[in-house]
Amino acid sequence: MGKYLFFDIDGTLIGPSKRVTKNTEEGIKKARANGHKTFLCTGRAPVSIMKSIRDIGFDGIISSAGGFVSIDGKYIFENFINQYVLSEVMLLFTNAKILFSLETKDALYQTPGVQDFFEKKQANILEGNLELARFLEERRNEEVRLPISEFNILQTKVTKVCFIAEDKLAFYDCVKYLSEFFNIVIFSKETDDFINGEIILKNCTKGDAMKRAVAYLGGDMKDTIAFGDSMNDFQMISEAAYGVVSYLAPDKLKAIADDTFEEPDDDGIFKCLQRLGLI
After folding, report:
1. How far apart are CA 200 and CA 208, in angstroms?
2. How far apart (Å, rounded) are the C-alpha atoms in residues 240 and 223?
3. Domain ranges of the chain
4. Which of 105, 170, 228, 259 has the fewest CB atoms found within 10 Å of its own CB?
5. What is the DSSP string of 150-197?
């Protein structure tokens, strides 16, 4: 019986090199050849998934942390934030001087000031925080990045909001207004002097998307294996029959996992696929 394999990208398929190793790429292809279904399951927006990763070949793609689910190139699920709720979030973050990025299917709309923030910080703030590195990478990508001034809330639908707050207390003051509608995922460390993360609609997590994909294909969740590394993978790892997380994952994530994988740049996923007898 074939398995359903769900792979996060940042910190899972790719490490600091930002490249999927040749062995891992071949391992995924071999897993498919062996009758298993493979899926990307990422926090990245659809337009932010690198072509080199797409070209490996997957049966489906879950993007924007569950906001979009596509199978064989066809979207089977799309979820968007209600425009009135979104307008309140934008006003809340703007008043609190929180930098943010609105993720849509076709573009990212970002507030000014993100680059200034990074220029004030030392380069080592990115160390061990691949989600923050992704946020910066997306901002520099002219093909997907647009200024917030070009965003039209009446015409463009948003599925997820990423944020960076230099004032921690200002962000914590926002939480009570966000928690009714959103799961709040934090990527920064407690010792950092800023907070970065994302807000994801409730009932629209990676875990929910995984269940939607499996049900669409007529599968069973008992045959699922998920691979992740950060807290936006929590629901995915929790819902999977077998969860595998990075050896560097937060303790809270490790606590619900069944196994760990090594550094992605050292063929961590490839070795894990071998160990689990999938290839």
Report:
1. 12
2. 8
3. 4-79+204-276, 83-112+142-201
4. 259
5. G--TTT----EEEEEES-HHHHHHHHHHHTTTEEEEE-S-TTSSSEEE
Query: Could you read off the pLDDT of 101-158 as tens digits, one per residue?
Result: 999 998 989 999 876 776 666 455 566 666 666 655 654 654 578 899 999 999 999 9
In whole angstroms, what is the distance from residue 131 CA to residue 119 CA? Answer: 18
pLDDT in tens, 23-38: 999 999 999 999 999 9
Architecture of domain 4-79+204-276: 3-Layer(aba) Sandwich (3.40)
What's the token pair of residue 39?
Answer: 């899926």
- Between CA 96 and CA 103, with CA 97 as vertex, the angle to 5 degrees is 100
Estimate to the nearest angstrom the gap between the alpha carbon of 24 and the chain centroid: 19
In angstroms, the CA 34 to CA 168 distance is 48
Give the tokens for residue 35. 């009758």
- Position 81: which residue type? I
Predicted TM-score of the model (pTM):
0.85
* Cα–Cα distance, 101 to 114 (Å, whole number): 10
